[in-house]
Amino acid sequence: xxxxxxxxxxxxxxxxxxxxxxxxxxxxxxxxxxxxxxxxxxxxxxxxxxxxxxxxxxxxxxxxxxxxxxxxxxxxxxxxxxxxxxxxxxxxxxxxxxxxxxxxxxxxxxxxxxxxxxxxxxxxxxxxxxxxxxxxxxxxxxxxxxxxxxxxxxxxxxxxxxxxxxxxxxxxxxxxxxxxxxxxxxxxxxxxxxxxxxxxxxxxxxxxxxxxxxxxxxxxxxxxxxxxxxxxxxxxxxxxxxxxxxxxxxxxxxxxxxxxxxxxxxxxxxxxxxxxxxxxxxxxxxxxxxxxxxxxxxxxxxxxxxxxxxxxxxxxxxxxxxxxxxxxxxxxxxxxxxxxxxxxxxxxxxxxxxxxxxxxxxxxxxxxxxxxxxxxxxxxxxxxxxxxxxxxxx
Length: 394
Prior knowledge:
By secondary structure, the chain is of the alpha/beta class. It is built from ten helices and seven strands.
């Protein structure tokens, strides 16, 4: 049932109750007529002004005055019909826009019923004292209830406003989280592209240059170019396939590093020595980080070191409360000055990748003295980049 119908139920119910009291009281004809007139004024006031405004939340002085006069008139006919105040006071609150207007409307109802009392029971001092007491009590109860309901309404509106603001803040936080996630994913993808496809394509360029120099017998070099192109294609497909796990064809980290070393030797002619301590056990995600760091270190050696030999060593780092793994990549190349090394995805990319998993990177080098890169990380780590996609080097 709608609020409008409930209001009609309340008005007609009070009117029916008042009418029954007036008829059953066996009042004189003029008093009965006056009481019924007041009841009719109540129904008419609601039908003319209240019914069409209550759902719109509009204020109406007419309905307040009409209901106050109706209650006063009915009370003048029969004092017990002051019960109509039970509907008159709520109407006074509902159709007042401000607190001051509500106070004035309540006073109007109290005065009208008080005058009706005086006409019904008399104006003797005792009668007047009874009227003042009764109407003060009724008015006080109406004001107390009205103030309480108004305060509850204000609190409800304030909570509703705060809820809307909270929802807005949650939406902003969600948007910021999405932006942060997109930025982090972009950085992750940039690292993956640099660590995989960029290295493969660099190898292709160098092999192509080698093929141009080996005009007499290019078949072996061309075969390696084809192999490198296939590897780059495989890396691309792996990066697109989100959520794929580390694929080492069942070889584990040992086999993946061995394959990486063999491929580097074939493409560059630089000897690679691989040493892995017994008992080295890493989580799947730690293997990803170790393999990527090895790829990046070899890529740097390919592009800059001019080395004759590279050594890869994987072992257990000594000391510390947690079990950590150390990857050491050293070469006998031309070296460089770490303080003046150009920025890029080389050492900085490895450093960022290790920082994500609580690892560290240390590079030791000097012009003409070769390079030693040491990466340390926990042996068991959570997934550092979300869904990691990686394929073992071929």
